[in-house]
């Protein structure tokens, strides 16, 4: 009936579809599969941030929706940023790669200045006022990917030469790594270095150079661990967390206690026990443990399936990009996300020592989530020009 209660519904949906048609009805359409995988991960992340955090939010802020409201805000800002970056031709960033990298280095220096850099969790990694802040190391990951993509595209013919191609790229990468370690933030530093090594290897660098780098890196990594007692304790607690169950082994034990009872189907949405002050801040690095506890093996497999689909589409975009710069850019972004997922989930299930690495799209956070969505916005733009 015209003018009845059901009349506005088709109008609303028509409006939604009209917006989508206008946004995507162009000569160069993005990879729709990747786009909706990202949205699916955001929806799962928002739901799980609420489920994992409302107990802690009620206790600390007297508001069970504290983290949920902020995550929705971060997601909204991030989606707008993603659409913005998706609309801008990825070649634009090539022109400003030097300025972007310089700005990222300046932020990494500024965060180390006493009184400006904010300390959280033992690391001086933040710049901001009060609860609203940014993490410069997150900007550096994207900035270095953009710059290195330009460098490798131009200098690829020299990458087999240690002096002309391989070594200059290492200087750049490990300078950024050194500044991040001064905060210190080992998790972000490892993601950055691993991502850049994938890009350099894909450019054609010689395995002989990598073997020497691995040897030097092993010595350097051992020195980093020995230089900080808390890193040594993380290694020992990883090898035997039950040796200190209320100290250094506490997080991994509680994470395993969350995943174990989940079984095949899980305890049900909102029924997690470990979020009741057992697993510290479960909405952050250990959110996958809550997913396993509440949705079991099937829920965890579903989330992993979304990440595998994201990886597959990202690699396909990289392979089909129209130029070398686009290929390296897409590869760098998908490698960064994949490495971060692998590290986070490996920590949660006890395969590697605890490191402060968030789970992309799912963990609670501002800078991390927003910069991740900016990154995939660029990846989606590359997909507009790829022959998929």
Tell me what you see in this structure.
68% of the residues lie in helices and 4% in strands. The chain contains 14 helices and 3 strands. Strands 1-2-3 form a 3-stranded antiparallel sheet. β2 and β3 form a beta hairpin. α13 runs antiparallel to α14. The radius of gyration is 22 Å and the shape is globular. The N terminus is likely disordered.
Q: How much of the residues is beta strand, in percent?
A: under 5%
Largest sheet at a glance? Answer: 3 strands, antiparallel
DSSP helix fraction: 55-70%
How do the strands line up in the largest sheet? 1-2-3
Order of helices and strands: HHHHHEEEHHHHHHHHH
Distance between the amino and carboxyl termini: 45 Å
Shape: globular
Number of helices: 14
Content-based structural category: mainly alpha
CA radius of gyration: 22 Å
| Overall pLDDT confidence | 85
Number of strands: 3
Low-confidence stretches: 1-10
Short key terms for the protein model shown above:
mainly alpha; 3-stranded antiparallel beta sheet; globular; disordered N terminus
